[in-house]
């Protein structure tokens, strides 16, 4: 057998503090429930990844699924494609979607980390590119706050070394959203970009009115104004607006992305490492974006996404959140508005054992 084989897969649920609660049109998040994945191989290399689970109950379910997946993979080659085939067959009757799809993505990312470590290369180099600075925007906050509060927080986020920040929209009235956008845009220097995310808050009719009202307010993009799978409606909206429309965090795999791109559902695209199918799914998505000539950003998972964007032909922006930082030995570095991918072998994830024990969920 060539290359390492899977010896075991561990899953550890943690609940991590967030420096700033995130209030969106959907819910408010004050702590980050995650599952840390350790894929141990027979050659002594451990591949790591994590999954952001949104809810504590889901994190516990994911732990059970990861452990089941690990038992099925024990003794098999730690090869991403082979592991996906095995697990897709294992979960076929349940369906590879939702938490099951997340687990496959997490295992895939851990396999790629193990392969990169075994090769002695950063993940970006294993994928054929050199790690390089990636433009990043600060997404650690700017929830649905009053205008003055959101403007003050925007200044704090930019002062952390960023030339771009993202705010959330979807307040009860269009007037309130407009006031918040004007407060943020007015507080920040002109060179600092402001992205805005509705988190699917609007009907198509409401989106047409609200987004047109924001068209001349200096936003860099308007993200997910309508339901994520209404590709036709989103395409009509994107064609009608001067401000670019961003979407993609909810694309369930490269096939969904291909459909979205074909319909022109957004001007930009931003896959999520989990939902797009791990590193393998990201590679397929990056090829689709390249063929379509669409700028591609990331959603969450900044440590691994920085490696992947370095190897993405149409790389655009990295969404920076520091939610995993409390359990990382070396959090992702930011300098001069860019994320600096780790030059160490692998994807750059190493757990701080003491912090993991402290934040572990029962």
UniProtKB/TrEMBL annotation:
The keyword Magnesium applies. Keywords: Magnesium, Metal-binding. Its cofactor is Mg(2+). This is Mandelate racemase/muconate lactonizing enzyme C-terminal domain-containing protein. It comes from Streptomyces montanisoli. Pfam families: MR_MLE_C, MR_MLE_N. One of its GO terms (molecular function) is hydro-lyase activity. One of its GO terms (biological process) is amino acid catabolic process. InterPro entries: Enolase-like_C_sf, Enolase-like_N, Enolase_C-like, Mandel_Rmase/mucon_lact_enz_CS, Mandelate_racemase_C, Mandelate_racemase_N_dom, RHMD-like. It comes from the Bacteria. Residues 147-244 form the Mandelate racemase/muconate lactonizing enzyme C-terminal domain.
């Amino acid at each position: 057998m060539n290359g390492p084989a899977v010896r075991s897969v561990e899953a550890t649920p943690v609940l991590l503090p967030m420096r700033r609660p995130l209030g969106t049109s959907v819910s408010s998040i004050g702590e980050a429930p995650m599952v840390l994945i350790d894929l141990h191989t027979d050659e002594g290399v451990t591949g790591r990844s994590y999954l952001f689970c949104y809810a504590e109950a889901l994190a516990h379910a994911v732990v059970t699924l990861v452990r089941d997946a690990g038992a099925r993979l024990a003794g098999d080659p730690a090869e991403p494609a082979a592991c996906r085939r095995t697990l897709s067959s294992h979960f076929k009757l349940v369906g590879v979607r939702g938490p099951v799809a997340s687990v496959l993505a997490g295992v895939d990312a851990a396999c790629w980390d193990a392969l990169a470590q075994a090769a002695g290369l950063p993940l970006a180099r294993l994928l054929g590119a050199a790690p390089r600075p990636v433009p990043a925007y600060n997404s650690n906050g700017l929830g649905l706050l009053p205008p003055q509060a959101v403007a003050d927080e925007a200044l704090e986020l930019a002062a952390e070394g960023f030339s771009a920040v993202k705010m959330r929209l979807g307040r009860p009235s269009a007037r309130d959203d407009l006031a918040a956008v004007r407060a943020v845009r007015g507080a920040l220097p002109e060179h600092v970009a402001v992205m805005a995310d509705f988190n699917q808050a609007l009907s198509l009719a409401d989106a047409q009115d609200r987004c047109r009202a924001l068209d001349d307010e200096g936003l860099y993009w308007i993200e997910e104004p309508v339901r994520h799978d209404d590709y036709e409606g989103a395409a009509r909206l994107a064609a009608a607006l001067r401000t670019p429309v961003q979407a993609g965090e909810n694309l369930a795999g490269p096939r969904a992305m291909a459909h979205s791109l074909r319909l022109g559902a957004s001007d930009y695209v931003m896959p999520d490492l989990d939902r797009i199918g791990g590193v393998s799914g990201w590679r397929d998505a990056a090829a689709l974006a390249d063929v379509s000539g669409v700028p591609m950003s990331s959603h969450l998972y900044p440590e691994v996404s920085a490696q992947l964007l370095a190897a993405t032909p149409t790389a655009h922006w990295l969404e920076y959140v520091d939610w995993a930082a409390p359990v990382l030995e070396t959090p992702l570095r930011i300098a001069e508005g860019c994320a600096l991918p780790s030059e160490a072998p692998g994807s750059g994830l190493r757990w701080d054992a003491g912090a993991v024990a402290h934040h572990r969920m029962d």
